Amino acid sequence: MNEKHIDPVLVDGEPLRCIGCGAMIQTTDKTAPGYTPQSALDKGIETNEVYCQRCFRLRNYNEITPVGLTDDDFLNLLTQIQDANALIVYVVDIFDFNGSVIPGLHRFVGDNPVLLVGNKEDLLPSSLKRSKLQDWLRQRANEAGLRPIDVTLLSAKTNQSVDSLLAKIDKYRGNRDVYVVGVTNVGKSTLINQIIRQNTGVRDLITTSRFPGTTLDKIELPLDDDHVLVDTPGIIQNAQMAHFLTGKDLKIVTPQKPIKPKVYQLNDQQTLFLGGVARFDYDKGPKSGFTAYFENNLYIHRTKLANADDFRQRQLGQLLTPPQPENVADFPALVAHTFKTTAKSDLVFEGLGWITVPAGVNVTGWAPEGVGVLLRRAMI
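Structure tokens predicted for GTP-binding protein YqeH (380 residues):
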């Protein structure tokens, strides 16, 4: 996977793997996946819990260490699914559905059945009917070329409805392995940890974090009939906001508790700043209500559109955070995406949230270059 040849640590003739991320353990290259100091390796072998240095730092200090993996590396790992006889458990983030779609996934799954899992159900308002949400997810999956055999909702973080998922896996997998797939940051490894805990009592075996790309290689867990459950590495989705933020800022923009929608009555030519990381302009239309769905602690500031550029320049890193003051110089400029709605719609900022807008208005969403901003059929 890297051009430099690195000899993995062997145990009984087989490569030793990090139980946190799946990378092959090695002691020679600090910049490559699976590196662990010899002293830590010796201790890990004694306790039968070997973690690479990257996972150790993530688990104990929430500190991420870059490693030399490319997008192609992750995609090459996923192509193994084409040759597998498996039930595909496709995990998406309900709160960031568009940012958690794997482009062209139907090319990887082949003839294997797909069970669609909407994670982070606990973040959405309880007033949203779950049956309606399941239908919405199925329709979006169909648009992406997938025909899931079923759709289930859960919260891996709170263990909500994980039992229901396990029952459906048993129902649909037949004489197959189970491959769990998803983009980074959808909560896939957290879900795997809940499954492990329910079956073995072991807690937090697999490394999880808010950072993209925590699982580096596939992790195989034995099932009770000589088949395996495989946690695949998260596909890097570069359109996600997480790639532009530090760990401190991710805590501000990543929802941890149920979202409390905020309604703004706006005249046209008004702007809403979403901290300093994104912006919403109401360009043209009658006075209307706009509902914002973002992390509750994200500061939203209303101002006049005519003043918006000057205001952001003066207040970025001050009133408008994130980014933090020390990160302002490195934060990219915002790019405009303009839309005219024909029906009630959501203007989505991938990895951040969305604003529900009425039909027949002109709006603009601003986000860092590369972060997806799109219009979709309203979820709520």
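Confidence is low (pLDDT under 50) at residues 61-69, 202-216.
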